Structures are given as structure tokens and as C-alpha cells.
Amino acid sequence: MASNKHLTDIVTRHQVYLERLKSSQVRNFDATLRKLEKAILQVVNSLEVETLNDLTKAKLKEVLTQLRGAQTQIMLDSVDKLMTEFEKIAGYEAEFEAKSFGQLGVEVAVTYVPAKKAFAAAMGQPLSATGQMLDSFVKDWAAGEIEAVNNLITKGYADGWTNQQLVQAIRGTKKAGYADGIIAKIGRDADAVVRTAVQHVASSARMQTWAANSDIIKGYRWVSTLDGKTTQTCRSLDGKVFELGKGPRPPIHIRCRSTTVAELDSKFDFLDEGATRSSKDGYVDADLTYYDWLKKQPASFQDSAIGPTRGKLLRNGGLTAE
């Protein structure tokens, strides 16, 4: 099999922008958080008791039913929107992968995978990170958040919380920047679920495209984002080559950012003669590490990849590639 440096460069750059897409999808969930907070507090503020344990058991049950109903509709709407976005992402990723083969410098007949087929592959393949199917991964998370809110109410009932204490537990405290409330926790959980799901969809679509082009694609190489957030498992897999359908697939853990690049049939070995890889400003040494390569990119791209502070350090010598 041949590891094509052109494809590696394309995939490395693409993964950076996929991370930005994940962030955009996470931000879209903010509207759901606000709706949830409003619906939950509307029920809580309607309680006409000084402390929660003043509620009768019958009233408590009624409150829990109201809360579950209000949250369920909001979360189901959000899940539906997420699934719609995931299908779009699957189609885009499959098309992007197929088009990338057109940048090899030689003419190859490429089979394109339709969006619905790419998404069906993502839905029909368990997430390596959890072993769950995508549908249950997302829906189980949504159901779990609803149950967590109701459990908070029953805890307040058992401990005799005042309404003010309950509201604080829901919204969080000003001192902590409202990060200690259950609404903020739902947001953090959503961040993990969305990022993991998007990576799974992208990875599945990519591999579906490879399977459809098995005459030119014989395997894949693992490519990890090597920074302080990279897990030991992903670091250990970086650069390893696997046969199609016989190796690990990103995401292998929650919030996994590792990706994969196609390994071409050996008849394409000539493409890497000279040991170069493409970059925005021409051809560079093929043995560059991710950060060596990043140092050669424009400042705007460096800042989008690792943040303005570290980007500046990388440029002025305060942060070495190593």
C-alpha cells in the first residue's frame, strides 16, 4: 500500500475545519438549553410551597410528570435537528473524500457514495467510543438528561430544599459563572455527544467511500492531532496502517479528534517519489510532523487550529514544534 502525502495534507487540513464544524453544531444547541431552562423554571416557579418537602407525594408525582413532558418535547425536537444535520454532514464528507482523489495528479475513476447511503452506514455501524448505535447514543443521552433533572427535583424534595435552592441548583451560582448548575452540565454533555457523533458520521462516510473504491484504496492510516489534549491511545495509533474493515475507527473515545487517511494501491507509489507533500504555499518535506507543518501555515490558519495565544507563541519561537 502507498501512503500518499497529498492526501495526508488534505486530510490534516480538513480535520481542522471539521473541528470548527463541531463547535458550530455545539453552539446551535444553546437555543435548546435556553428553552429547557425556561420550561423547567416555569414548572418550579409555579410551586406554592416554602420548601419542596411540603409537597404531597401526589403533587410531587404531578410535578415530575409535567417536567418530563416539557423537557421531552424540547429534547426530541433538538435530536431531530441533530440527525438532519448529521445526514448532511455524512453526504458532504463522502463527497469530499471522493473529490480528494481527484487531487492526486492522475486520472482515476472514482465512485461517489450518495448522502443517504453514507448516513445509513453511520447509523448502522456502532460507535467505537461506546459500542452504541448512533441513534441510541443520541437518544439515550437526551433521555438521561431529562431523568437527571427529575432526579434533582426528588433530591430537593428529600433534602427539604427551598425553591430558591432548587433554582440555584438548576441555573448555577453567579460565583461559579453559572457553570455549577444542571443546565450548564447538560450543555457540557451535549458538547461531548455532538462532537463524538460528528466524528463518527465523518469517519463512517469516509470509510464507505473507500469501500466503494476498493480498486484503488487498500487500507487506511491513522492520523492523530498531536497536542496536549490527545489521549495516549490516539498517540499510540498515530501513523499505524490497517486494512479496510480490519482496524479501529475514530472516534475511539468521547470527543476523539483523530482521523484517517486512505492508503492507495501500490501502483500509485510513484506519486510520492521525491518525498514531498502539498501545502498551501507549494511542496514541503514529507517527513514534517503536524506542528512542523503548522509552522509553515498562514497565521490565520495557525490561530484557527491551536488558538491565537499558542499561534503567536508558535510564530515567535515561544512554542517549539516538539
Q: How would you write the strand order of the largest sheet? A: 1-4-2-3
**What's the overall average pLDDT, rounded?**
87
How does the major sheet shape up?
A: 4 strands, antiparallel
SSE arrangement, N to C: EHHHHHHHEHEEEEHHH
Q: Tell me, what's the shape?
A: elongated
Question: Unreliable segments (pLDDT under 50, ≥5 consecutive)?
Answer: 274-287
How much is the radius of gyration in Å?
Answer: 24 Å
- Counting DSSP E segments of at least 2 residues, the number of strands comes to 6
Strand content: 5-15%
Q: How many DSSP helices?
A: 11
Structural class: alpha+beta
* Fraction of helical residues: 55-70%
Can you characterise this structure?
It is built from eleven helices and six strands. It is of the alpha+beta class and 322 residues long. The strands form two sheets. Strands 1-4-2-3 form a four-stranded antiparallel β-sheet. Strand 5 and strand 6 (282-285) form a beta hairpin.
Topology:
Blueprint: E1 2-3, H1 5-28, H2 30-45, H3 57-100, H4 115-124, H5 134-159, H6 163-171, H7 182-212, E2 217-223, H8 232-237, E3 241-243, E4 259-264, E5 276-279, E6 282-285, H9 290-295, H10 299-306, H11 308-316
Antiparallel strand pairs: 1-4, 2-3, 2-4, 5-6
Helix pairs in contact: 1-7, 2-3, 2-6, 2-7, 3-4, 3-5, 3-7, 4-7, 5-6, 5-7, 10-11
What would you say about this model in short?
It is built from 11 helices and 6 strands. It has helices at 5-28, 30-45, 57-100, 115-124, 134-159, 163-171, 182-212, 232-237, 290-295, 299-306, 308-316; strands at residues 2-3, 217-223, 241-243, 259-264, 276-279, 282-285.
